[in-house]
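Subject: design request, 137 residues
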């Protein structure tokens, strides 16, 4: 009986300790939650190379272990060195947008040592449309 109580106490202390450690650690926070172009027109296509800014809002060094992007999107650069608490970093991506009506839906997935959310997703959204022809005068 004493062994069971001892094992249960050690188990509970272990769980509480791990939750305490999770509260103190690195934390990746994007400057913007997402990039939403809204509606853009085929004759005014937006820049397709962007810098995604983020910072370490946690209490320990943040290390990105991987950055990957979806269809038609290329990751050009991302920080390989640890970011200390309060430091900022930039992920540079480039993607293709054809000048035709389409929905913009791209994602950049960042894997890090963030204890609360080891996988973070940055979204790029919007809609490309043809500009309506002006009526004749």
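Subject: RE: design request

Done. Sequence follows.
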């Amino acid at each position: 009986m004493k062994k069971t109580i001892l094992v249960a106490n050690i188990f509970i202390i272990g769980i509480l300790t791990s939750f305490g450690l999770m509260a103190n650690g690195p934390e990746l926070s994007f400057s913007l939650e997402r990039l939403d172009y809204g509606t853009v027109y085929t004759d005014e296509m937006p820049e397709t190379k962007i810098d995604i800014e983020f910072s370490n809002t946690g209490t320990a060094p943040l290390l990105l272990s991987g950055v990957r992007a979806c269809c038609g999107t290329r990751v050009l650069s991302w920080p390989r060195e640890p970011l200390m608490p309060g430091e900022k970093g930039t992920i540079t991506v480039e993607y293709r947008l054809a000048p035709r009506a389409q929905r913009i839906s791209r994602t950049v997935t960042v894997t890090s040592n963030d204890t609360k959310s080891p996988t973070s997703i940055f979204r790029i959204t919007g809609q490309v449309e043809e500009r309506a022809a002006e009526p004749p005068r």
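The longest strand covers residues 102-112.
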